[in-house]
Amino acid sequence: MSITQSSLQASIGQHPATAVADGFAGTVGRTPLIRLNVFSAETGCEILGKAEFLNPGGSVKDRAARAIIDDAERRGALRPGGTVVEGTAGNTGIGIAHLCNARGYRAVIVMPDNQSPEKYQLLEALGAEVRRVKAVPYADPNHYQKVAARVAQEIEGAVWANQFDNTANARAHRETTGPEIWEQTRGGIDAFVVATGTGGTLSGVSQFLKTQRADIRTVLADPPGSSLYEHVRSGVLRATGSGSITEGIGIGRVTANLAEAVIDDAIHVEDAETVRYVYRLLREEGLFLGSTSGLNVAAAVRVARELGPGHTVVTVLCDGGAKYSSRLFNRAWLEQKGFAAVVGGPSAWENARVA
User: Fold this and answer.
1) How far is CA 223 from CA 52, 272, 291, in A?
2) Could you say which of 50, 61, 119, 323 is catalytic?
């Protein structure tokens, strides 16, 4: 069910850009849908990206961070002057750090030691206490999520955000992201495609959209090393590949948030394709985005081609590219990983080099 250009423009125009927002938290959400012109033309479909990189903390994770803190406050678990502890690949921690500053809390962020350097630097600049731990499998008691849980127990007045299994995460997307997409497309959406880490976005949006129209196709996009593609396809948690250059997505278990998702299918996206789409988004759409956005758009294009011309496919543009400048947008790093050829030769780097 394709939406027309005029109806798309009209729905985007409904974004309350002139309203006065109530602080940092009041600016989270209501992000626009961006028509990806090149990919739409290639597929004959409307491929739309939910511009979550425009959230005030720079990512889709601002929604979960706000919802989790709001929920802890309502329950009385988080009191004035308290501490919020979280284990994160970065973006949820960034949202939490912003909100803690705005509301007078302390933020303690536990991260695996294999993330982009820019994330640690940004969190420290925001005033969060950052504790780096060795990246280990989830079964290990020193996995960053489990360390965060212990740290929260050790600090008086602290709460553990627990974004993976705290279903306030999925509820945020069920109550905000899903309704926004439905309103912005005027109900003319045929498929929703997104990668998942905690499961919150996919779960909340899929639940809402399926209540509006059961035939909307919901698809999980998955990177190498994750077990979710096989879980959706065969019911078995089995990793596809050994690992990925993506950060914050792909997982080896079904979280409490993901358990509530309504998923029709899954798509496996190799890293080379993810990187290629990241650079196509930059060079052809003018969008400087992180690897998850590249993976999401690659999967959305595949779904569009499966559905055929005349359909509307929505995905999520999760965060900006600046946090990955030393890696994803660094030629030496790409050469080391074997992806330099994917993004083009020296002339292309002269035209689109950002690091």
Assistant:
1) 20, 10, 10
2) 61
